Structure formats: structure tokens, C-alpha cells
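Quick one, C-alpha cells below. Sequence please?
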């Protein structure tokens, strides 16, 4: 009897947690798309993400992962896999988006940051990274992805990421199209692998990297003095002095703006 009661309580807690998780995420259902058919959503949090993307979960955890939901939607004759990742903040969501997007054919105005290819629509809005995948790459599938993406994005009222403090002299369009944000080695390897040695052995940083006019601009901010000193010592760097073959400028506490030839 005690064992049965314990099992029931455990199951009840899982269901409550699942319900709260679903409520917190910008999921859509038949109220949003009455003509669509929705599969039961799968929800992943913490280390359970390895059960879904084993081999790729480490990247999400490095940035700061909260919870994800995965749903298959049948709509207008097509099938679409919709992934909604809630990260720990807007910077973390943009980071995943920035190192995941590839050869965008368009950037639909569903949010400040979006990327559409034949087979995938990616959206970054607030603390959410959204991926909608289709299997055929047809025009009708692309349109359906846009409809689904807009329904999800419209539910997100969180503040968009603002990278202007990292790149004060870079225009918005360049930031939208050419920047990546990294928080550790895996982000570097996925987004700008040639810089792996540049950050070797340092931790506790957020770096925004842009390639522009044959130069690489690296805006790197460290979490504390110890991490900041590690980076300075790695490069035998003195603030506001010539740096390697480029230049460095301090733009905030533990925050450097570095220009290197690309």
C-alpha cells in the first residue's frame, strides 16, 4: 500500500511539473491552428536533454539551458517538427541561434533574429530558440513553417536581446547578420573554430564576434576579475596597448573590444 501510494505521488509530481512546464512555454495547440493535428509534446529539462540530442546537449548546457518541448504538427498536408528551447536568458538564446543558423535564404520579420532555409525556420526571441523543420523543402512547407513560427513568436512577450553594449559602433544590420555569441569552448568550436586557441584555458566569459571589412571584432566580457586576469595573462596583454597584430580597448569592467585582421 505504501509503495503504491509513493508511486502515485511520484507520478502526480511528474504530471504537475509537465503541466507547469507546458504552461510556461509558448506552445501552440488547436486553439491557434484549428485545422492542424498535434502530437503529444515531449518535454526535456536538465540532463534529460541528452535523451533527445545526445552529442549536442553539451552545447545547450554550456550556454545555459532551462527546458525544451518537441512537438510534431501535421498541417496543410505537411509534417513539421517544432522544437522550443527555453534558455536561461536572451543572450543564451541568441548564442544558440547564432551558432546554429547556416546560409539563411531569408530573415522573415517574426522577431529581431530569424533565419529560414528550405528545410528549417529558426527564430530567436526573448529567452527562446525555436526550430521548425520540414522534410520536403517545398514552397508550401516554407509557408507553413512561417505560419507556425508566427503563432509561436506572437506568444513571446519577453524582451529581445540587446547586443549594443558589446558592439557600440557596429550597425544593427551587421549585428543581425554577421555576429555570433559564445560562452565557452563548444560555442567557439561551433561558431568560430579558428579562435579556439585564442580563448584556450579561460572560462567565465561572454564574447560577441563579428567579421567585417577584412577584420574580426571580438567583444569579450568576463564574469569576474580572476577570469579576466586569466585572459590578460594568456596573451601577455596590457590594456589599451597594441595587441598581437591588432588593437585592444577596454570598454567596461572586465570587458575588452579587440580588433584582429581576418
Amino acid at each position: 500500500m505504501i509503495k503504491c501510494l509513493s508511486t502515485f505521488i511520484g507520478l502526480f509530481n511528474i504530471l504537475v511539473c509537465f503541466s507547469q512546464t507546458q504552461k510556461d512555454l509558448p506552445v501552440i495547440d488547436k486553439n491557434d491552428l484549428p485545422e492542424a493535428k498535434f502530437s503529444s509534446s515531449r518535454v526535456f529539462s536538465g540532463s534529460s536533454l541528452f535523451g533527445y540530442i545526445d552529442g549536442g546537449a553539451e552545447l545547450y548546457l554550456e550556454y545555459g539551458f532551462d527546458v525544451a518541448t518537441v512537438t510534431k504538427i501535421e498541417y496543410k498536408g505537411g509534417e513539421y517538427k517544432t522544437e522550443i528551447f527555453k534558455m536561461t536568458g536572451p543572450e543564451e538564446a541568441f548564442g544558440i541561434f547564432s551558432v546554429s543558423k547556416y546560409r539563411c535564404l531569408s530573415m522573415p520579420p517574426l522577431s529581431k533574429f530569424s533565419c529560414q532555409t528550405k528545410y528549417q525556420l529558426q527564430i530567436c526571441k526573448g529567452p527562446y530558440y525555436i526550430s521548425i523543420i520540414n522534410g520536403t523543402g517545398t514552397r508550401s512547407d516554407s509557408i507553413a513553417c512561417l505560419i507556425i513560427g508566427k503563432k509561436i513568436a506572437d506568444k513571446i512577450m519577453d524582451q529581445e536581446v540587446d547586443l549594443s553594449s558589446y558592439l557600440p559602433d557596429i550597425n544593427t544590420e551587421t549585428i543581425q547578420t554577421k555576429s555570433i555569441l559564445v560562452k565557452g569552448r563548444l560555442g567557439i568550436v561551433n561558431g568560430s573554430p579558428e579562435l579556439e586557441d585564442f580563448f584556450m584555458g579561460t572560462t567565465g566569459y561572454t564574447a560577441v564576434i563579428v567579421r567585417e571589412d577584412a577584420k574580426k571584432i571580438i567583444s569579450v566580457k568576463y564574469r569576474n576579475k580572476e577570469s579576466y586576469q586569466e585572459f590578460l595573462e594568456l596573451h601577455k596583454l596590457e590594456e589599451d596597448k597594441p595587441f598581437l597584430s591588432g588593437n585592444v580597448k577596454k570598454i567596461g569592467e572586465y570587458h575588452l573590444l579587440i580588433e584582429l585582421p581576418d
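The chain is about 30% helix and 30% strand. The chain has two domains: 2-153, 172-261.
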